[in-house]
Amino acid sequence: MELRKINPEDAVAQWEYTTVLPEDENGLTNPYHGVSLEEYKKSVLPTLISYEHPVNMPDWFVPETFYYLWDEDCLVGEFRIRHYLTEALRNGSGHIGYSIGKEYRGKGYGTAGLGLTIQMAKSIVPEDEIYLRVKKDNIASQKCMIANGAYKAGEDEEHYFMRIPK
Ligand SMILES: CC(C)(COP(=O)(O)OP(=O)(O)OC[C@H]1O[C@@H](n2cnc3c(N)ncnc32)[C@H](O)[C@@H]1OP(=O)(O)O)[C@@H](O)C(=O)NCCC(=O)NCCS
Q1: Is 89 inside any structural domain?
Q2: How far is the CA of 97 from the centre of ligand 1 (A)?
Q3: Strands 2-5, 151-155: parallel, antiparallel or unpaired by DSSP?
Q4: Residues with Cβ < 8 Å from 8, sequence gap 6 or more?
Q5: Cα dihedral 110→113→126→91 (10° resolution)
Q6: 145 CA from centroid of ligand 1 (Å)
Q7: Assigned domain for 164 exists
Q8: What is the pTM of this model?
Q9: Does residue 99's CB lie within 6 angstroms of at least one atom of ligand 1?
Q10: How confident is the model over 72-122, as pLDDT tens digits?
Q11: 109 CB less than 6 Å from ligand 1?
């Protein structure tokens, strides 16, 4: 299993994943649901790659790197790392967002992929802890986080705010 950064060579597999990922599932948003392969290659892929070193983006935009989890030649999930916290991220979605493709869920990929992503995030984010947010009814994601050393640092009506010490 490996985490591979978004790249043009893997365009078709990345597109297949992105185009079927729901627009919003448990708070993980995807504006590219249903996008064509042509549109993905021409516009979505360059945009997502550029988020690592954003150019001409608003002040509030934090650099974000997209990774895909691969098992042999199967792309099974997506993991995104936001490089540092702003007030909005600190009190919102935190450093990491992720999903596993529907047909691959419940096989340990979420837990393993989050583990690899946390290792990666440790060398990127300057904060002492990795911040994560999860909906209270999203038990599978909470289990992925807890298995990777997360503790509950707070909550609001809908979410738990979780943190993993570096
Ligand atoms: C959350 C998500 C990434 C989990 O991925 P996954 O590959 O299914 O996770 P795992 O297989 O590692 O399972 C983690 C744990 O959750 C449990 N689990 C899996 N699906 C479950 C479900 N539907 N209900 C309850 N528990 C579930 C597993 O049994 C496992 O428990 P264990 O550690 O006690 O064995 C995946 O369900 C997903 O992509 N959901 C939609 C997007 C999302 O919610 N992203 C996270 C936002 S915070």
Answers
A1: yes
A2: 13
A3: unpaired
A4: 41, 45, 49
A5: -20
A6: 10
A7: no
A8: 0.96
A9: yes
A10: 999 999 999 999 999 999 999 999 999 999 999 999 999 999 999 999 999
A11: yes
Note down the domain range covering 98: 2-127
Atom of ligand 1 nearest to the CA of 77: 39
Q: How many residues does the chain have?
A: 166
Cβ neighbours for 31, distance < 8 A, ≥ 6 positions apart = 23
Q: How far apart are CA 145 and CA 98, in angstroms?
A: 11
Q: How far apart are the first and last CA of the chain?
A: 22
- Residue 7 domain flag: yes
Q: State in Å: Cα 55 to ligand 1 middle.
A: 35
Ligand 1 within 6 A of CB of 71? no
Closest CA to 121 of 78, 164, 77: 164
Count the domains in the chain: 1
**Is there an atom of ligand 1 within 6 Å of 15 CB?**
no
- Residue 65 belongs to some domain of the structure: yes
Per-residue tokens: 127:
């904060």
